[in-house]
């Protein structure tokens, strides 16, 4: 399926350009080195011209096979699919044939030694460039060194002068260096870009997952307490109705209706991501909810003057702790204390009636319970402690550092209205 250019990602466009460049390299060097070198190096004779024509034909086939070999090598380097062995073998065989034809041309003594070095550089290039993508750099360097030594040995065997041997060695070494600089470096740059692209995709997925966790945690915190209150008040309304106290039952159900409507509003605000918690409201709400459940609740301290992010973090602590008091154990009393100092704010929620199972339940809310609160407090450099402090007494303590937070005058008794 052909994809339009504008529909490609940036890295896909870079890969397309890289593939075109790698395919063009062999053809450019074929025209610039092999064709030009042979055109100026063959002096006279039918046999030299026949050998030169055969060499050009082999070079042409090398470019065609080299295209497929290079693209397959790039795919292998990027971890997509291995290079077929037959393709590697065919490319290597063509390189050997090309080098053999160059040796044959040199033996005829009808070529210029200074120009024949140009086809000599190109002959192993289509194979070497693609092969550099399929093996480690050290392996390629070792095998390239062996190939250079073998080439020099063949040149020495046909009577090449010392200066010519140096030229042969340099030309073959230059081919290996060009293979690494052009093909290997291009493939490495492309692989780095793909890794960065995949890293961005993973980061995006993690951001989505984190947002889902945040939403689930917020929804749990918002609905947990309200649903507990709805259950308690509904049960109370049923009992009042059975006793014939219809007006009281209606009042309780009216309160249930109000809480349900408030919950709908809060859920919408959570979905929009704009929900801000007022610590004073949460303290007053906790006292009202616990009192309605028959739990004597004392709230001390004031949230006035605290930064918004601190109020939000501690407000979630109050909400989660209140929910745990309602759900776990059989509490008769609960104490909520907010101490605002010059350097830190300390919130303490302590309740009785917590058995071993209740304490574990209150403290094991992984992700959506107290562990979720630790995440919220960490955002404001705060910390959370939770656990049994004595028999059947469970305590949650949240500390948040606040510079110049407000009054260092300790705690004071307030009513539910005063906390607001």
Architecture overview:
The chain has about 425 residues and is an alpha+beta fold. The protein has helices at about 10-40, 45-75, 85-105, 115-120, 125-130, 135-155, 160-240, 245-270, 280-290, 310-325, 355-365, 370-380, 415-420; strands at about 295-300, 335-340, 345-350, 385-390, 395-400. Helix 10 links the parallel strand 1 and strand 2. Helix 2 packs parallel to helix 5. The longest helix is centred in the middle third of the chain and has 81 residues, at about 160-240. The two termini are about 65 Å apart.
Keywords, please?
420 residues, alpha+beta, 5-stranded mixed β-sheet, disordered C terminus
Short description:
This protein has 420 residues and is an alpha+beta fold.
What topology emerges from the helices and strands here?
Blueprint: H1 10-41, H2 46-77, H3 85-107, H4 113-122, H5 125-131, H6 137-157, H7 162-242, H8 246-272, H9 279-292, E1 296-300, H10 308-327, E2 333-340, E3 344-351, H11 356-363, H12 370-378, E4 383-390, E5 393-401, H13 416-419
Parallel strand pairs: 1-2
Antiparallel strand pairs: 2-3, 3-5, 4-5
Helix pairs in contact: 1-2, 1-4, 1-7, 2-3, 2-5, 3-4, 3-5, 4-7, 5-7, 6-7, 7-8, 7-10, 9-10, 10-12
